[in-house]
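Supplementary Methods, section 5.1.

A reviewer requested that the exact input to the structure prediction be made available. We therefore reproduce it here, unchanged from the version used in the analyses.
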Amino acid sequence: MKEHWSRVIRNAYSDLPEADFIIHAGDLINHGDADEQWGEWFHAGGWINGMVPSIVAAGNHEYSKIVQGAPRGLSQYWQPQFAFPENGPAEFKENVYYTDYQGMRIVTLDTNLRGTELDKQITWLDGVLANNPNKWTVLTFHHPIFATSPGRDNKEVRDKLMPLVEKYSVDLVLQGHDHNYARGMVTNVSEGTNAMSEKSDTVFVVSVSGPKMYDFTTKNWDDNGAEVKKSTKNTQLYQLVRVNGNKLSYEARTATGELFDGFEINKTPSGEKQIKETKPANQ
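The structure derived from this sequence is encoded token-by-token as follows.
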């Protein structure tokens, strides 16, 4: 972790030293109850972690298997290390919350929790998005709505979240878990209860900043009416997101700082979104 992920966060900070916060979409470490791994994570970020706040979604690796006979749950190190807004559902205050910052609402969910626990988050999310005074809306959670690795499909997450993503025209969805990169949008009408408009104006991103990589597939995108605009595997990436009034600009860069992918979202006075591709210079 020290020699691989450290170069990513340090290069990201060098590219955007005025960043107001860093979003992490889960799986910061490999074993949630391994104190030494948390130590390596904080060591890799070094003083950056002391200067720039983190907005973190819990990944499956942030969950401990068993701690002193207790049932599986969030790592015992989670709450002592992070101080997040306690504005989520009462039973999920440590890991489900939203952050309002200069015209943007960032909502963090815990997609490790399924069934009735996910239902409670969906009910809460509906209210949080319905009463959102901000111009921009970002969701972040660990398990992708459109999985990118073979054999993976988070159907429950997709079925329960997509109706709200579309209903409230969420701008950007940031996810992890599949250890590769994909960025795209919904472009076709889906069948059944998940029917969506002819073209969604939400951008979905799956990315990985560490060195652990998985195989890549577009199956879940193709099967659910989504199109991958840009993808890769075996490449560590970080993202730079800038918001200036009616424009959100996004860049994905490699660990060495090379521009890999980019787009802009521009909002008209009426709220309509126009999305423009910003390709790297060599493409």
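DSSP finds seven helices and 15 strands in the chain. These observations are discussed further in the main text.
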